[in-house]
Amino acid sequence: MTLQCDNVDFAHGERPALHSVNACFEQGQFSVILGPNGAGKSTLLACLAGLLKPDSGSARLDGRDVSSLPVADRAKMIGLLPQGAETHWAISVQALVALGRYPHRTGLGLSKQDRSAITDALNATGTSSYAMRTVTELSGGERARVLMARVLAGEPQWILADEPLANLDPGYQIDMLTLLRKQADSGKGVVAVLHDLHHAVRYANHVVLLHRGTIFAQGDMSSVITSANLAAVYGIDAQLFTDEKGLKQLLIHGKIAP
Ligand SMILES: Nc1ncnc2c1ncn2[C@@H]1O[C@H](COP(=O)(O)OP(=O)(O)OP(=O)(O)O)[C@@H](O)[C@H]1O
């Protein structure tokens, strides 16, 4: 299954955000959308999720226009973790995560499958120990993991996450990246907007590099994360290499003088 953008243009009012964007994402891959502030990453993710309808072109899930899918069908297929997601209701963690089952619900109560998906999501995100706490009383990092649990509870085929590492300490950042990697390895499609290039090269295997609303490069990590591309897009002097354990690492030397 593929999720793709064909010739997408999008402007927020008068402000252009995406121009002629063609990008293709596949299940089984951990894809990252990279690019400087304001490059259009969140806008692209929102178009892929069907939250924003392109001004021209389309976002397609297996050939079907995402923005024209019935909302419930779309919610079953695509789980979205929005940027800076907040929780305004004073409900329990368990109840919030259970909301992730909403697209699957047929009756009033939770089915056995609903309960099992909620338990799995709480366990996968390390949030089961505070399932009975009130979400508005959690720390930012705890809340971020609960919101990911809500996405996982919906058992979507695709997980779209906008800055999923925000508010997480280094240990939990690694847990989150490992979780996303596992989801991709299990056959789901994972697309995340990240700012941390070190984490991106280490955990993802497909990258879309945006620059000023257009695709600068896309493909596997080694072909996109080149010193020349990083210099042109971020203005940094950096080098991708493979360490002695066979892991991809990025060495950032600094900014290139203007
Ligand atoms: N609601 C909005 N109204 C007007 N302009 C917007 C709105 N949201 C985004 N933009 C503009 O659209 C462009 C792309 O924004 P977007 O949030 O997609 O970038 P981004 O790459 O995700 O940025 P960041 O890394 O800073 O989160 C920017 O020029 C931004 O100022």
From TrEMBL:
CDD domains: ABC_Iron-Siderophores_B12_Hemin. Residues 3-237 form the ABC transporter domain. Keywords: ATP-binding, Nucleotide-binding, Translocase, Transport. SUPFAM superfamilies: P-loop containing nucleoside triphosphate hydrolases. One of its GO terms (molecular function) is ATP hydrolysis activity. The keyword Transferase does not apply. PROSITE patterns: ABC_TRANSPORTER_1, ABC_TRANSPORTER_2. The keyword Nucleotide-binding applies. Belongs to the ABC transporter superfamily. This is ABC transporter ATP-binding protein. It comes from Sphingorhabdus profundilacus.
